[in-house]
Amino acid sequence: MATIFHVSDLHIGKYSKNIQAPDCDISMEQFHLHRVHALLNEVESAARRTVEAGDNSVVVVTGDLTDQGWDKQFACVEEELQRIKGVCPVRIVPGNHDYGNFRGCLFVKKSVRCFDELAHGLGMKVDFSAKYEGILESHSYAGAPYFETFGGADHSPVCLVYLNSCSSEGLEDFSRGDLGDLQLEMLESGLNAYLKENGNIPVFLCMHHKPLTRGYPDPVMGLDKKDRVRLGEIANGRVGAILYGHQSELKFLQDLSPIIWPAKGTQTPILIDGNGSVSTSLGYARISVSNGAIDPGWVAVSEPVFAEAVHA
């Protein structure tokens, strides 16, 4: 069996006004970091159990690992993820907050480079920054998308494909997303070639922005409409599931619970939204794959006790 642990939108460095505890003050930034730490501890423990049971396991974080893309936030993320890397592989894709130093609304080249350095430190052979430098085709890593297979024939192998959905146009409104014609062309040709050789291995796309048009549309925060349509044409019949984050459409219902949209028939991918990882509650998506069958579910994580957060 293969197991994918999916979290998103950790927003390490998230800041707000101080809140008052019964016995002392603690900043919202400190408390938020404590919640992230508690979540990732549970993910690490769950991954360790699956690895010890002989499963093929990987942890995927679909963007907004940091809140402003600052050096100290990336350093904190690296410390958290390197610990999990000691148990199983950890894979990441960028979110708009990782690339901007004003709550994800600005594009900062240094932050883009920092994200690539973090990805390389986790063992990823991909340069997401290539999307913005006009070298996507010629770079040695070929930029995103990058295909990676985990597990052998006897361990229910899975293929992860990493996409950069952060905007390449209209950088003054960087919360919106796009994939771009070139990345979509490379995705389609890459999928055709991969599936020709590995037709029985389920493929998972990993990206930050909401990929397709199910649920509530979001013209302000979502993926470019043209790219959504094209992605649907490419993914249908080729892709088993798409992991994403960014903004849960359930916010319109004042609820940030996780969303798992089941496949419609046999052609449409399952959509798995990890945005609820550290929102109003803690949790992660756990996706089991056995003999090509994909079984997604959500695991709730207990909130850390506030007094423990204060004195930790």
User: What amount of the residues lies in strands?
Assistant: 15-25%
**How many helices does DSSP assign?**
6
Q: CATH homologous superfamily?
A: Metallo-dependent phosphatases
Number of strands: 13
The CATH architecture designation is 4-Layer Sandwich
- The proportion of residues forming helix, as a percent range, comes to 25-40%
Characterize the main sheet.
Answer: 6 strands, mixed
CA-CA gap between termini: 37 Å
Give the helix/strand class.
alpha/beta
Shape: globular
The helix/strand series, from N terminus to C terminus, equals EEEHEHEHEEHEHEEEEEH
Average predicted local confidence, pLDDT: 81
CATH class: Alpha Beta
What topology, given as strand order, has the largest sheet?
6-7-8-9-11-10
The value of Rg in angstroms is 18 Å
CATH topology name: Purple Acid Phosphatase, chain A, domain 2
Unreliable residue stretches? 16-23, 135-142, 249-257, 308-312
Tally of discrete structural domains: 1
Question: Explain this structure to me?
Answer:
The structure is a single chain. By secondary structure, the protein is an alpha/beta fold. It has a single domain, classed as Purple Acid Phosphatase, chain A, domain 2. Helix content is 28%, strand content 21%. It is built from 6 helices and 13 strands. Helix 5 (225-235) links the parallel strand 8 and strand 9. It is globular, with a radius of gyration of 18 Å.
Quick overview of this protein structure:
By secondary structure, the chain is an alpha/beta fold.
Main attributes of the structure:
312 residues, alpha/beta, Purple Acid Phosphatase, chain A, domain 2, six-stranded mixed beta sheet, five-stranded mixed beta sheet, 6 helices, 13 strands
